[in-house]
Amino acid sequence: MHWYLIYTHSCHEKKVKKRLDRERLETFLPVAERWSLRKERRERISLPLFPGYLFVRTEMNATIYLKILRIQGVIGFFCNSGKPAAIPDEEMENIQRSLKNGKDACPVESFENYSSKFIYGHRVEEAVSL
């Protein structure tokens, strides 16, 4: 089983996570806790560490691939050469370890240094800055 990165509609990460959890798929949505001023009072809110992205762990095959793409709110996969790219376990462990150790994490606003391909159904587009 490998981790894959899913691209979601803006502000739909938590909804997509719930939908994938209902399908019994293992998900990981790293969040950062922040203070927010709402209705003239401060409250603690959880913001996705990587807005627009969600990790899913699965054995990828055509059935699972289509099942995930059909989930409402999913746009596509982080791809390499037109196929969903597996995220190295070491990278996932580093993210999870950093969050467990209580390191102060800030949401990432963009992936400007990445040149990646996302697959939208059957159409492939180049994304240089998100």
Keywords summarizing the entry:
alpha+beta, Alpha-Beta Plaits, two-stranded antiparallel ribbon, globular
What is the compact description of this entry?
The chain is built from three helices and ten strands.
List the SSEs and their pairings.
Blueprint: E1 2-8, H1 13-22, E2 26-28, E3 31-38, E4 41-48, E5 53-58, H2 62-69, E6 74-80, E7 83-84, E8 86-87, H3 89-100, E9 116-120, E10 123-127
Antiparallel strand pairs: 1-5, 1-6, 1-8, 2-5, 3-4, 6-7, 6-9, 9-10
* Main beta sheet: 8 strands, antiparallel
> What is the typical, i.e. mean, pLDDT?
76
H/E element order: EHEEEEHEEEHEE
By DSSP, the count of extended strands is 10
CATH superfamily: NusG, N-terminal domain
Give the CA-based shape. Answer: globular
Overall CATH architecture: 2-Layer Sandwich
Strand content: 35-45%
Number of domains: 1
CATH-defined topology: Alpha-Beta Plaits
Unreliable residue runs: 107-130
General description of the model:
The chain has a single domain (2-127), classed as NusG, N-terminal domain (Alpha-Beta Plaits), CATH 3.30.70.940. Helix content is 23%, strand content 41%. It has helices spanning 13-22, 62-69, 89-100, and strands spanning 2-8, 26-28, 31-38, 41-48, 53-58, 74-80, 83-84, 86-87, 116-120, 123-127. Strand 3 and strand 4 form a beta hairpin. The longest helix has 12 residues, at 89-100. The protein is globular and about 50 Å long. The model is unreliable at 107-130 (pLDDT under 50).
